[in-house]
């Protein structure tokens, strides 16, 4: 392919290979019949259709930050931004700590010169309340879409970056790496020369697209080569590593990427199957490029042998070296593992350069090349290498030598065959699953945690790879302040350190307590000396003693499973950890037993399948219940219908109860609850979402069910209740029930729902309910909503589902985890609620009832003034004067991310007026 700039890349792919596709598997179900397909022709058309939206939104700025949760959104809006003539910036995951998140966003706002941030309404809650960035939800953009003339595609200017990629920020504030069109194109040409592909090939990606490897190594590489590409969410592959091979077989994948830790996971899954051959054919597979951390030769050798049983070539694993600054892979090894085994290497060679780059090994003192075999600093240069960090001249000056060679930060040597071999980093960093962390930042995090049992300022962290281990992990050595024979304290500190480091790195650390740590005359602890002592075996006695004491404590706490659920968990955990079931007690801490974050994802999926748990059982459930017994109870709670979703469990003010709209779910209230730190917040969820759950048969049954659940969590008043739309009717009936018991309802409000159901609503069919709820869920644009509303009245339910799925926003389907079957179930719940409410007529009264109002549903055909008149009828059912509060947005978006902050302020005012 001959391309001049990045705009040409998709344009030419659509022209020459328009039928090739972006295939994206739905979250949680990597099955060939459950995926979205977007041809290159359609992607090109979508990008063009969004040009005017981007230009109107961002007329004078050059950078657009893209913050999306799935591959389809990222790909569509990446090209929309490029076609509009601006520079897309791929957003990395936001820090979990609110303080760190704000600091990160402030840094981005300054570094990127006040960019617009595009995201989805469903992701708006990830951002703190006070955000320095201008955030725009694409639902809002699409709502303003028009069908005007087709705008021109902008050429990528040579003087501006085609892309900006953010470094992880794990070793300090992130940097922005500008990748210009000529650099990217040179890189793609070099990759094709080093790893030849045929247009009939398919590329597979399962890493987030904010990683340069997935974006350039897979997405752009596939476009450049005219190949189709498949994208799967990371958690789906990590939770079931063998599905990686199944997708390769189903989609006939030839090229993909997998870091070393995942190769180790594949080995772990395939090893027990040496004597049982799977029904698997991966003869299509040519390359599994692997980078990010050193590849262990033994791991590569073992896996190559196992994969060869299913048709893969014996050199299918291709270790490589690359950085964001070099457009991902730029040095590849096509002879692994045979070459390394012949040389007796422990770690795989990186190989040789692609066209467009060269490397050298230099001394730290100067730029003189070091002879082959001697270790020095790795430096690179060439058309594939970037020329400066964005808006950061200091980092640029530090990164380049005066003669233009880029300092990679790695050390290595060139062997006799001219292949690059890495030996370490010039900086002390810890590489976990391909992400690098500074030791002192982990040390500070542990010191700030003030873990009882750790002597002050005595924690030291460094990288550690146990003998025979496949991957590197963080090691935390500390001086303990508890008695050496206090096994319980030793175990408690181990768990606390593990939890803290896993929150930061998603990796389980190796932990070693010492009775004393040696300090220099200045009172400092030598990290390098401790690391050397551990690796040399000098601390083996302390290691053995610690392991024995932890083992002794765990045995003393051992308790066998007492229920079938606990037994299933023990069996799954034993398989995950490759330990006998009789060694796992139900009161032992999962993290102490060695469960990593990846293991947690795998355990979650296994338990979901084995125990038939629905989506109410989440990875967060596993993270917040650290023992098998706690987790078993949480599973039991998830299996039984519970109408209450606890959105915020703590607070000193009156709890707020939120009653769902006709959609029946509590998801709509999540963003609102995040703004309310001072009170418990609970929301109701209709019955029928779980398998086998019966729908409510009457309003009375629904209200009494909610009343009973409410009383269990809040036995006494005063109560505060807000009902959204349909929920206003339920909130009114719930309040009457509470007042009849003598309870005080200090606050009762209805959001945009009159007391009487209009004749029009009583006539709504199942298919119209489908369209309305889908619009409410953000699956349809306003234009699609209007179009489908008139088309759906006379078609069958299955046909309606099929038509809606085809017109729906595919990335929003992915975000909600919906397919045709799950959407149909949701609509069945919503329609059942509508049916029991058709004949509802309000009776009686409550002490007081307030009304929040916004624009009505469009299909009702009434003005805002006429709607307010209908809402005013609530005064007939309130013994005190009804108060009315105008809120932003229209019926479906009143609690959406763009309006929820304003709604919260109004709600807070209304609560204060009623003394709640």
UniProtKB/TrEMBL annotation:
A GO molecular-function descriptor: very long-chain fatty acid-CoA ligase activity
Keyword Phosphoprotein annotated: yes
GO annotation, biological process: fatty acid biosynthetic process
Top-level taxon of origin: Eukaryota
Keywords attached to this entry: Phosphopantetheine, Phosphoprotein
Xref: InterPro entries: AB_hydrolase_fold, ACP-like_sf, AMP-bd_C_sf, AMP-dep_synth/lig_dom, ANL_N_sf, PP-bd_ACP, Thioesterase
Domain Carrier: 560-639
Protein name: Thioesterase domain protein
Lineage: Eukaryota, Fungi, Dikarya, Ascomycota, Pezizomycotina
């Amino acid at each position: 392919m001959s391309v001049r700039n990045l705009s040409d890349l998709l344009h030419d792919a659509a022209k020459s290979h328009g039928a090739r596709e972006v295939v994206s598997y739905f979250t949680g179900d990597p099955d060939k019949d459950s995926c979205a397909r977007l041809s290159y022709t359609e992607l090109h058309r979508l990008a063009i259709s969004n040009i005017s939206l981007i230009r109107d939104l961002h007329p004078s700025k050059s950078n657009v930050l893209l913050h999306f949760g799935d591959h389809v959104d990222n790909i569509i809006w990446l090209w929309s931004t490029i076609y509009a003539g601006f520079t897309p910036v791929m957003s990395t995951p936001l820090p979990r700590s609110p303080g760190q998140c704000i600091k990160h966003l402030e840094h981005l706002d300054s570094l990127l010169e006040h960019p617009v941030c595009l995201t989805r309404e469903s992701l708006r809650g990830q951002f703190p309340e006070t955000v320095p960035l201008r955030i725009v939800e694409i639902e809002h953009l699409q709502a303003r879409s028009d069908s005007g003339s087709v705008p021109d595609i902008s050429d990528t200017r040579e003087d501006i970056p085609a892309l900006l990629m953010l470094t992880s920020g794990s070793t300090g504030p992130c940097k922005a790496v500008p990748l210009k069109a000529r650099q990217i194109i040179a890189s793609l040409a070099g990759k094709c020369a080093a790893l030849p592909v045929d247009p009939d090939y398919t590329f597979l990606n399962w890493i987030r697209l904010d990683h340069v490897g997935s974006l350039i190594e897979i997405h752009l590489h596939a476009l450049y080569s005219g190949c189709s590409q498949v994208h799967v969410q990371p958690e789906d592959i990590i939770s079931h590593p063998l599905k990686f091979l199944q997708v390769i077989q189903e989609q006939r994948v030839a090229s993909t990427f997998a870091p070393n830790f995942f190769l180790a996971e594949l080995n772990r899954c395939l090893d027990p199957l040496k004597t049982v051959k799977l029904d698997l054919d991966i003869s299509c597979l040519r390359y599994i490029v692997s980078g990010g951390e050193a590849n262990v030769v033994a791991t590569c050798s073992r896996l190559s042998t196992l994969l060869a049983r299913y048709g893969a070539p014996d050199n299918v694993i291709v270790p490589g070296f690359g950085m964001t600054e070099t457009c991902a892979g730029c040095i590849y090894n096509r002879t692994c593992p045979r070459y390394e085994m012949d040389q007796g290497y422990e770690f795989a060679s990186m190989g040789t350069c692609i066209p467009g780059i060269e490397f050298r090994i230099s001394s730290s003192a100067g730029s003189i090349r070091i002879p082959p075999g001697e270790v020095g600093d790795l430096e690179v240069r060439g058309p594939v290498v970037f020329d400066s960090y964005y808006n950061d001249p200091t980092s640029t000056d530090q990164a380049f030598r005066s003669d233009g060679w880029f300092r990679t930060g790695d050390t290595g040597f060139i062997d006799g065959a001219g292949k690059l071999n890495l030996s370490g980093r010039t900086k002390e960093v810890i590489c976990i699953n391909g992400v690098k962390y500074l030791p002192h930042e982990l040390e500070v995090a542990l010191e700030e945690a003030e873990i009882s049992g750790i002597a002050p300022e005595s924690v030291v962290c460094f990288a550690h790879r146990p003998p025979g281990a496949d991957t590197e992990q963080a090691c935390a050595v500390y001086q303990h302040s508890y008695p050496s024979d206090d096994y319980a304290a030793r175990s408690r500190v181990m768990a606390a350190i593990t939890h803290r480091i896993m929150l930061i790195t998603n990796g389980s650390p190796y932990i070693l307590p010492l009775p004393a740590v040696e300090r220099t005359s200045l009172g400092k602890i030598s990290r390098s000396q401790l690391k050397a002592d551990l690796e040399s075996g000098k601390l083996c006695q302390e290691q053995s003693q610690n392991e024995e004491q932890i083992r002794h404590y765990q045995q003393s706490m051992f308790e066998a499973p007492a229920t079938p659920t606990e037994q299933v968990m023990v069996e799954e955990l034993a398989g995950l950890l490759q330990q006998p079931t009789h060694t796992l007690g139900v009161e032992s801490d999962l993290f102490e037993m060695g469960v990593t974050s990846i293991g947690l994802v795998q355990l979650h999926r296994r338990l979901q399948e084995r125990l038939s748990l629905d989506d109410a059982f989440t990875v967060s459930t596993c993270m917040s219940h650290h023992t098998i017994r706690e987790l078993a109870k949480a599973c039991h709670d998830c299996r039984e219908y519970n109408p209450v979703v606890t959105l915020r469990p703590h607070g000193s003010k009156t709890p707020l109860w939120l009653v769902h709209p006709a959609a029946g779910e509590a998801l709509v209230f999540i963003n609102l609850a995040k703004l309310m730190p001072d009170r418990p917040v609970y929301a109701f969820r209709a019955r029928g979402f779980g398998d086998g759950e019966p729908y409510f048969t009457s309003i009375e049954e629904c209200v009494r069910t909610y009343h009973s659940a409410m009383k269990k969590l809040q036995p006494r008043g005063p109560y505060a209740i807000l009902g959204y739309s349909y929920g206003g009717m339920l909130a009114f009936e719930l309040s009457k029930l509470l007042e009849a018991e003598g309870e005080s309802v200090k606050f009762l409000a209805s959001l945009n729902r009159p007391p009487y159901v209009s004749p029009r609503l009583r006539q709504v069919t199942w298919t119209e309910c489908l369209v309305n709820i889908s619009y409410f869920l953000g699956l349809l644009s306003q234009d699609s909503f209007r179009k489908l509303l008139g088309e759906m009245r006379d078609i069958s339910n299955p046909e309606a589902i099929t038509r809606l799925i085809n017109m729906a926003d595919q990335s929003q389907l992915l975000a909600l985890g919906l397919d045709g079957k799950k959407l149909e179930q949701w609509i069945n719940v919503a329609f059942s609620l509508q049916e029991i409410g058709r004949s509802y007529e309000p009776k009686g009264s409550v002490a007081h009832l307030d009304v929040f109002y916004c624009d009505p549903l469009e299909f009702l055909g009434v003005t805002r003034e006429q709607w307010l008149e209908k809402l005013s009828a609530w005064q007939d059912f309130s013994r005190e004067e009804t108060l009315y509060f105008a809120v932003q947005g229209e019926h479906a978006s009143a609690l959406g991310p763009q309006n929820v902050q304003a709604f919260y302020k109004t709600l807070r005012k209304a609560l204060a007026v009623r003394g709640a």
